[in-house]
Write a structure and sequence with these properties.
By secondary structure, this protein is an alpha+beta fold. The chain has 4 domains: 101 residues, no CATH class; 68 residues, no CATH class; 146 residues, 2-Layer Sandwich (Nucleotidyltransferase, domain 5), CATH 3.30.420; 77 residues. The chain has 14 helices and 11 strands. Helix 11 packs antiparallel against helix 12.
Length: 412
């Protein structure tokens, strides 16, 4: 069967395995296995009716009707011989044209897994599995001998197996809840800081956390060193929603900036809500580990829960707003494609360091902006406390290690 798959570039799947019942005494075979072409309907015609017809880069593998190719194998209890009956007629093209709808063979997948477990980099694994498919000599040979599926192995094929190997390390139990508790225990044994409150745990005294809240805070020893070394100059906090497949879960990252300007996660929190009390509990937990570290500048997006939590925990820290989030908030109040001049003025306005030029630019903005946009900017952005958080006028006193205007350094 493997030789046939290799020769015709096809794929067989097992349709069923049969054993004779106690009533079928005349049947001599002990076991019967039926293999069919993977492109046929092995389990009968689907009752599902498609609502849409999409243009696919790779055609669907399944045919509209059953492929007649079939291999039936019988084994017997009284002999070691194996009898087979093979119908080699196909209702579709074989060879090179069928390569793109066949999956990698098991021996190829095993080879990829073996190389990955030996520590070979995925790009090198891909080169070894593909062979010399893209050389001129090999392209000539393809026309004569035919292609093998392994030669068209992609990075996603390798990554799929790589993820399977990673899961052995990531999942410490079959259920996510049990796995998380084991991870907490493991990290604490390695002397990392972990704080957890499950939805069934009682609320820590004075935390203000919701009774049903789930909160998981992690700061490894290395992250604590990064926070101690760089956190006094600059810190940022950023939230990413629905990071996991659990709905309404948020990942909060407390990050610092190293001497080369790269973002470094200094602590993480996964929580079921993003209320002020939850974020304050996060910052307070980190503060208790290193009481002497107070960022001179703290960067956030315009989220009142984050801003108020920073003020409560680091009252001496100057709070700045991420420019990307500021511009993103502004553009939600008008159609940028219909107001090109306004959008250009706003993008320049946020970066002006000279106070006179800043207010002159504001007059230009008022001349071309809709009344609703002017009212919005005056109400929420031009008050003394707010303008100090986003305008470049108030960002001129930072040293070279604090020159950062986005809290998304980790994504970058």
């Amino acid at each position: 069967m493997l030789k046939e798959e290799e020769k015709n570039t096809v794929e067989f799947i097992k349709q069923q395995t049969l054993h004779p019942t106690s009533n079928e005494t005349k049947i001599l075979w002990h076991k019967k296995q039926i293999y069919v072409c993977a492109r046929g309907l092995s389990g009968g015609k689907s009752k599902y009716t498609r609502k849409h017809s999409w243009n696919r880069a790779v055609p669907t593998k399944k045919l509209e009707e059953r492929c007649p190719c079939r291999l039936t194998i019988k084994t017997y209890s009284y002999t070691s011989k194996v009898l087979g009956k093979y119908n080699e007629k196909y209702s579709h093209e074989t060879g090179n044209m069928n390569t793109r709808v066949t999956r990698l063979r098991k021996d190829t997948r095993d080879g990829i897994e073996r190389l990955l477990r030996l520590g070979v980099e995925p790009c090198k694994v891909l080169e070894q599995i593909q062979g010399k498919i893209y050389t001129e000599d090999n392209l000539r040979g393809l026309q004569e001998e035919g292609a093998r599926r392994s030669e068209f192995c992609t990075r996603s094929d390798v990554r799929r197996i790589e993820k399977m190997i990673e899961e052995e390390i990531v999942w410490l139990a079959s259920q996510d809840g049990a796995s998380i508790l084991k991870w907490v225990e493991t990290l604490r044994e390695r002397d990392h800081y972990v704080e957890i409150k499950t939805s069934s745990d009682s609320t820590p005294l004075g935390s203000g956390l919701d009774t049903n809240a789930f909160v998981l805070i992690i700061q490894t020893q290395y992250q604590q060193e990064c926070w101690t070394k760089h956190g006094g100059r600059f810190a940022g906090i950023d939230a990413t929603h629905n990071t996991t497949h659990y709905e309404n879960m948020s990942l909060f990252t407390l990050l610092v900036r190293d001497r080369w300007g790269h973002g470094m996660p200094a602590a993480w929190m996964i929580s079921s809500n993003g209320t002020e009390d939850t974020i304050h509990f996060f910052l307070r937990s980190i503060r208790m580990q290193t009481p002497g570290i107070i960022p001179e500048f703290s960067l956030s997006d315009k989220d009142h829960a984050q801003i108020n939590s920073i003020k409560r925990q680091f009252p001496k820290s100057a709070i700045l707003l991420c420019w990307w989030h500021v511009l993103h908030a502004w553009q939600q109040h008008f159609v940028t494609s219909a107001h090109h001049e306004l959008w250009a003025l706003l993008k320049k306005w946020i970066r002006l360091e000279n106070r006179t030029e800043f207010w002159q630019q504001w007059e230009k903005i008022k001349n071309c902006a809709p009344p609703s946009v002017i009212q919005y900017l005056e109400t929420f952005w031009l008050e003394d406390e707010n303008i100090k958080m986003w305008s470049a006028i108030y960002r001129t006193d930072r040293n070279v290690f604090q020159l950062c205007d986005t809290n998304m350094l980790v994504e970058a």
